[in-house]
Amino acid sequence: MTIRSTLWSRGADMMDEAVVDSCITELPQGAVASGENGDAVLVINHSRVTPPLSVLWATVLYCAEFICAAVLCSIYHNNGDKIWMGMTIAFVLVPSVLTQLTLTFVHRDLGRDRPLVLFMHLLLLGPLIRCVEALVIYCKAGRKEEPYVTITRKRKLKNGKAVGSPMEWEIGHSERKLAVHRNAFKRTAIIQAFLGSTPQLTLQLYAAIQEKYLLSTRVVLMVISLISIIYGALVCSVLAIQIRYDDYKVRLKPAAYFCMVLWRGLEITTRVASLVLFSTALTFWVIPVGLANLFIFFFQPWVEFWARKASMPENIEKNFSKLGTTVVLCMVTLLYACINIFCWSAVQLNLADHDLIEKQPRWSHLAVYYTFRFFENVVLIILWFSFQSDFYVYVCVPLLVVQLIVCYGLAVLFMLLFYQFCHPARKLFKHNVEDCLRCVCCQKKGQLQPQDDGVLVPEDLQHPDLNTQLGERETDILDDTTEAA
């Protein structure tokens, strides 16, 4: 029996394994063949189908946030708070509608006869029926033989290094269908987090400060929104890793998740708190601040696109015209901008590429982003401190200011720890955090050396050649990879 390759799907989420076809072959089951570079390729039987936990978790967050927002809107209606009610409804409906459109588009339901599914989408219950579909597929998987499978070829990473020969896994139809569901919910989780949960959390926190009391339902909604935002940010981070290293079998350890949760949680919480506190003191000034951030991150990919004099990517969708492709790119850019307003998106857009993602990450963008964001948060907090209202008379304001600044610093620290120690492909980096810090420290020592004392300092200590060190390190990594293969 032969193995036939079908469509490939890129990236999975944190709890499930991706299905990526980097090579198309036809080999008998259990065979060992030769790869493109002469490496041995081991074809093994398809792995056990993993439960769609990410689909279930995203559905639970969607339903919980929707129900809490509905209950809170009922309370606002009874209290006569029309403004809070209207804005709460808007921040629930907009991402919900986009979620239904995304699920319908990914599963191509418009060209299929599925009236029940489309009706559930009209009721904004599309994630619920999709979750049920995924659970049914998982329960039925493995009960009968699947003659056609998809092949995924990957290399294993151990302690950040590529080890062993490339291996090909047989991916059955059930696994591929579950991968489609996971990829669809991955997109909806990001949309729900940054187009719905972030403005919802900001609104409810602002309303709580302005009204000077906390409703239990409002607190629950804020907690669920914060969890949804952190989850969406984690999906972005893991997706960036899987796209960058799609030739490897990437697995994140619990320590990596721990660092990412603290990194993203502190970053997002500090950012939202800074914007809300600033808006309570200077209400109308927060609008130009938000619009400036939105326009900068929205037009940045387009400016790079025009600077490269590139052309529109083709085959994003076969039925799309140039106008349809432009609309899709604008929506993707808008989502990208909304993510970067509150946290680092972990990816850079390349509108000229078919995948729309920059495969080679530019660490300078990361450094510039966090430097700019840190100073912006500090400025917002200082302005709030200068124009604060009497409501904060019972709060130790200087301590709160210090806490917000320290929390953002801790977020950056956990990010550095993740890239230095917990990143699954850290040994494949051309340079890491340790190299940069060592270079900076060596430069400072060279500047502090006395110039007139007659002591001769070796040139390699005065001006360390970082490129030579990195070249040696890259050679070692390549040698290790070649020997392991």
What does this molecule look like?
By secondary structure, this protein is α/β, with parallel strands linked by helices. The chain folds into three domains: 1-251, no CATH class; 280-423, no CATH class; 433-484, no CATH class. It is built from 14 helices and five strands. It has helices at 53-79, 82-107, 115-122, 126-140, 173-211, 216-244, 254-281, 286-307, 322-342, 363-386, 397-422, 433-448, 459-462, 466-484, and strands at residues 32-34, 40-44, 150-158, 161-171, 248-249. The chain has a five-stranded mixed beta sheet with strand order 1-2-4-3-5. A hairpin with a 5-residue loop joins strand 1 (32-34) and strand 2 (40-44). Helix 1 packs parallel to helix 5 (173-211) and helix 7 packs parallel to helix 10 (363-386). It is globular and about 65 Å long. The relative contact order is 0.10. The model is unreliable at 1-38 and 448-485 (pLDDT under 50). Pfam families: XK-related. Keywords: Membrane, Transmembrane, Transmembrane helix. InterPro entries: XK-rel (IPR018629), XK-related_adapter (IPR051773). The chain crosses the membrane at residues 55-76, 83-106, 118-138, 219-243, 284-303, 323-347, 367-385, 391-419.
